[in-house]
Amino acid sequence: MTLRRRLLRWRVRWREGPSLAQGLPWAVLLLGLLLSLGLWSHERREAEIVLQRDVDAALHAASQRLGHRLDALQQILSAVHALAQAQEPAGGPALDEARLARFLAAMPLGIEHAGLEGLALVRWLPSRPEDDEAAPRALLGPLLPGPGPLGQPQDLWRDPLLRPALLRARESGQITLSPALDLRRWRLGHSPGVLLVQPLFRPAPDGSRRLESWVLAPVSVAALMDPLQAQLPRGLSLRLFEGDAPGDDTLLYQAARAPAGGLLQRQQRLLRGGQDWTLQLQAHEDYAPLAGRAEPRTLALSGVLGSVLLALLAWALAGSRERAQALAQRMTRALRESEQRWAFALEGAGDGVWDWDMRADVLVTTARWKTLMGWPLMAGEPRFQQMLPLVHPDEQPGLRQRLRDCIQGGVGSFEVEFRVRAADGGWRWLMARGRIVERDGREVPRRMIGTLSDIDARRQSEAQIHFLARHDPLTELANRAHFSERLQLALAHARRYHETLGLILVDLDRFKPVNDLHGHAVGDDLLQAMARRLKAAVRETDVVGRIGGDEFLVLLCGPVSRDSARHVAEKIYNLVAQPLQLGELRLELTCSLGLALYPEDGDDERSLKKAADDAMYASKRAGRLLLGTAGH
């Protein structure tokens, strides 16, 4: 009855003539519709600009991630090249399948190495001038690991797709990239892809370099690109083409279940290893709502509904204050829930979120940020000055400089990597990204937001790859290249400060018969045990390296006297001669030693090694331990 009386009263007033209270809702409705139309037109133009900018940014990020993945794969081939140079045995190949298999087994492969099918060795057999019927060949060995037995070695030199890549790698001496091909044809993979080619050279007697082999790294394009597609928001799809003219005949990769057509299409060229690629990114109909930006027609509909609501609000304003307050509370709650969903989405990806009020010097952070930084969850929000002591002292100046460049240099954003204390007492690598989102009238920054990511696994993988490139994977001693670097530095220091150095060449006696009789596994355990004994015989400042199968070098950093060097040599001889128990097998070995001193026996690396080598062979001929250097 109450609603009916109100309707009758409103009908009587309308018949009596419109008043100001009755005309206000209609005026509000008309004004709201006009504003909605103008806003719809403006937002439509802005949405197109924002969509193009976002797609360009996503394409640039995908291109950078693709480049990082290719760089990570090329680092593996560079490490193989360093391994071949460091472990080159006399009279044999610089690298064989056994060493390559051990290297691949010790390699810590992560998500950045997705798409790598394995490693394969290609032997180069050049033609002989005296034999007219001989032709150059490039024989492919088995893939490690591979899809199965290879059968007869295949000659890749005759293949029109692979020969240009092998030839380009041989001429440039650098890592090259092959055209797209079917890896299953040569049993190098399970799907179409490309090959990374690393040439391996060997010094010739005339001082030139002679090509000995290539190392191939088959890469599945689908496995390489799928993680990049998975990192994109829904509504964006990647396509990869060979060359600079995208077409169906040059298509290398296309995202699965990508709808035809789209709102926008952008592309970017990539040049890697002599090959030209085109990376294309398409935005589809379902992308704009996912990015949090309503389409213009949705905005127009919202404006019409809002105008109607405002008109109703104006009509009921006099007696509807409570309802207006309730509406404001609901809108505030919806906004808070939207912010919580945004923060939850970022933390679901493993990143922490932070918001810095620069005027009050207060950080508003999520639980994931506190966990990564080691800040107690119940300790409240930290100030910026309280966060800096959590960072490793070596990274604090760099972090301050990046923030200073962002705030005072006009950059507007920053990205920095640093270490913080982990729960186990060690240090963990993190990466912080930030952007200024609010300034005052004088363009002074007032507010900055950003994310915090855990990159400790990636940094550890990079450190492990760097270690394997400079050390012997079996004994973890310095390899030939790294030992040469340390020796050159020690010689430069000795020349500057007029100090002496000692170089001891150690050769295990009767190692080959033990290796042949008991197998390579026992031989590997024996070499590892001898490496530990050599390290125990010297100081921490000295360097022990493995330069061959059973040959080691020991660098005694100065100042070193002849008596002290002889004492170390005797200690090494006695430790090596001690019986060794490997399971149920008991072994007794001796060694031959050669000692050389700088500058008495030589003033550079070559002369010192030759003097130590001569002394070692003199010890072998004498059949006993000779502690004198060559010529003494």
Automatic annotation (TrEMBL):
Superkingdom in the source lineage: Bacteria
Pfam families with a match to the protein in the record:
CHASE (PF03924), GGDEF (PF00990), PAS_3 (PF08447)
Domain named CHASE: residues: 155-280
- Where is this protein localized, as stated in its record? Membrane
Gene Ontology terms for molecular function: diguanylate cyclase activity
Residue ranges of domain PAS in the record: 338-410
Keyword list (alphabetical) reads: Membrane, Nucleotidyltransferase, Transferase, Transmembrane, Transmembrane helix
The GGDEF domain, residue ranges: 499-632
User: Per the UniProt record, which residue ranges are transmembrane?
Assistant: 20-40
Q: Which InterPro entries match?
A: CHASE_dom, CHASE_sf, DGC-Regulatory_Protein, GGDEF_dom, Nucleotide_cyclase, PAC, PAS, PAS-assoc_C
In short, the EC number is: 2.7.7.65
Boundaries of each PAC domain copy? 414-467
Q: Which NCBIfam families match?
A: GGDEF (TIGR00254), sensory_box (TIGR00229)
PANTHER family found in the cross-reference section: DIGUANYLATE CYCLASE DGCT-RELATED, GGDEF DOMAIN-CONTAINING PROTEIN
Listed name of the protein: Diguanylate cyclase
Q: What is the lineage of its organism?
A: Bacteria, Pseudomonadati, Pseudomonadota, Betaproteobacteria, Burkholderiales
